[in-house]
Amino acid sequence: MAENSAQSQEKRTDVHLQLVTDDPVSCKDMSDENLMLAHGKGSEEAFVELVERHQRGVLNFTHRMVQNRQIAEELTQEVFLALVKNGQRYRPTAKFTTYLYAIASNMVSKEWLRRKRRPRVFSLFSNWGKDSDDSFHPLEHVGDAKADTLKSFRRGEVSEAVNEALQHLPEHQRETFILLRFQELSYEEIAAITKVPIGTAKSRVVRAERALRPLLADFRDYV
């Protein structure tokens, strides 16, 4: 009887030791959804990882949408502040990127609304003292030391042309096009973000591409 008790105690000890020595899952190995859930429970490391993964993409999205670096940075900050505020209420009912870009889309919509409410007189000065902050320089190309000078110049030229062409699109077409071609989201995600049927999202992209084609004719080999 004593022998059985000792064996039982040994088994319990083995189990206990196994649990203690298990390595915790690194934030780097966690999915976006699990990171957000961990953030909701108070994990600062999980939130930092989310920022590292998605800050650049969100900033690129907002920058292409509003065409102003300072405003894009402010909107991006607001997006991640929204994650902080909504952390405890988050439920993974959809992909995290759908959730994230829905917030970003809402922030951009509010910015467009603010612009429409501003006095028209400000547009008279829109081209005065314009500096590089109002022109789009894709973040994914910043600091690319491997690219030679000619390629870097051409790439920047193409980016400028694309940026200018995007301004000619209606806001809803611009958004769906950017979400698909630059953020590489699926039509299902885009439909959820923009709150339209998938067919409508697809037709908006087709119309956007049709409108952009003549505007980017000189860069056909690059776009």
CATH architecture of the largest domain: Orthogonal Bundle
Shape: elongated
Topology, number of strands: 0
Mean pLDDT: 79
How is the secondary structure organized here?
Layout: H1 2-21, H2 32-40, H3 44-66, H4 69-86, H5 96-117, H6 149-166, H7 171-181, H8 187-194, H9 198-215
Helix pairs in contact: 2-3, 3-4, 3-5, 4-5, 5-8, 7-9, 8-9
Which properties best describe this structure?
single chain, 223 residues, mainly alpha, Rna Polymerase Sigma Factor, Chain: A, Arc Repressor Mutant, subunit A, 2 domains, elongated
Structure commentary:
- The chain is mainly α and 223 residues long.
- The protein has helices at 2-21, 32-40, 44-66, 69-86, 96-117, 149-166, 171-181, 187-194, 198-215.
- Helix 2 (32-40) crosses helix 3.
- The radius of gyration is 24 Å and the shape is elongated.
- Residues 10-23 and 120-144 have low confidence and may be disordered.
Q: How would you sum up this structure in a few lines?
A:
It is built from 9 helices and no strands. With 223 residues, it is mainly alpha-helical. The longest helix is centred in the first third of the chain and has 23 residues, at 44-66.
